[in-house]
Amino acid sequence: MTAMEYRTIPEADVQTALDLHYLVFLEKAPEDDTRESHRDVLLHCDRVGAYEGDDLVGLLAAHPLDLSVPGGTLPAAGVTFVSVAPTHRRRGVLSGMIAELFRRCADRGVPLASLWVSEAAIYGRFGFDPATHSYTVTIDATHPLDLRITPDERPLRLLPFASAAPVITPRHEAARRDRAGRVARDDWWWRTQVLPETFEEDDEMSEPRVVVLGDPGEPPAGYVVYRTKTDDEGRGTAHVEELEAESPEVAAALWRYTASIDLADKVRAWGRPLDDPLLRFAGDRDQVDVTREFPGLWLRLVDVPAALTGRTWSAPVDLVLEVTDAGVPRNASRYRLTAKPDAGGAHRAEVTRTDDAPDLTLDVRELAACYLGGTDPAELVRAGLVEEHRPGAAALLGQASRTELLPHTTDEF
Ligand SMILES: CC(=O)SCCNC(=O)CCNC(=O)[C@H](O)C(C)(C)COP(=O)(O)OP(=O)(O)OC[C@H]1O[C@@H](n2cnc3c(N)ncnc32)[C@H](O)[C@@H]1OP(=O)(O)O
Question: How much is the ipTM here?
Answer without folding.
Answer: 0.97
